Amino acid sequence: MDSNYRAYNHVDSARRIKEYLTGTTQTFEEVDALPDRDKLTFSNGFYAYCSAIFVDIRESSKLPSHYKRPRLARIYRAYLSELVAIFNGDPNAREINIAGDAAWAVINTPYTSDINSVFALGFRANSMAKVLNYEMKKASYGHPIEIGVGMSYGRALMIKAGYNGSKINDVVYMGDVVNEAAKLANYGNSSWNVPALVTSEVFYNNLDEHNQGLLKYDYSRSCYTGDVISTEMQEWFDENCK
Fold this sequence. Notes:
By secondary structure, the chain is an alpha+beta fold. 38% of the residues lie in helices and 27% in strands.
């Protein structure tokens, strides 16, 4: 968000703090699906069950030791561009965000078929990373990347936060669903025996039988993991990336 200069006034600040903490004008509504962000004001919020997917690069802090900044910027642009494209391909995607070297999305999933669609986003991201590493190798980028993909399902509170009247604001999702997806993504590909895709137990329980069969239970973290890829993308890769 760009800055928008306004002199700070501590008296006005104290008034705003009191209103946010104790005011009676705020409402938080339970809904079947998270609405568009233009439905939000600084005095309302919406509760709904949804899914979250979080993808980040493993050991990204070590990448600057392998690549100078212009090359590293090229990798990040390619990686983040295609993650956003994958997430944006789900018609139920409610919010897509970039946070450093990670990208995440909140997706309305009122039906189990919608949760299976989120799982598809996960294995497409895994396949995209394979294509990215292939192209990096062709272009003499010597160090490949690995990603972790976390997926979860749960209840979120969607609110608008920022400085009222300044046009500096953003949507915040409160609840375990996004945090859990981030933690699961951080576990994905964290060691040689942990695959890229990681789902919560609740997310797994809502997948169809076929997709459940692609994952295995991880007793150490009480989650499900799998090195799942897109069959369609793999077929294209086999034909075009040799």
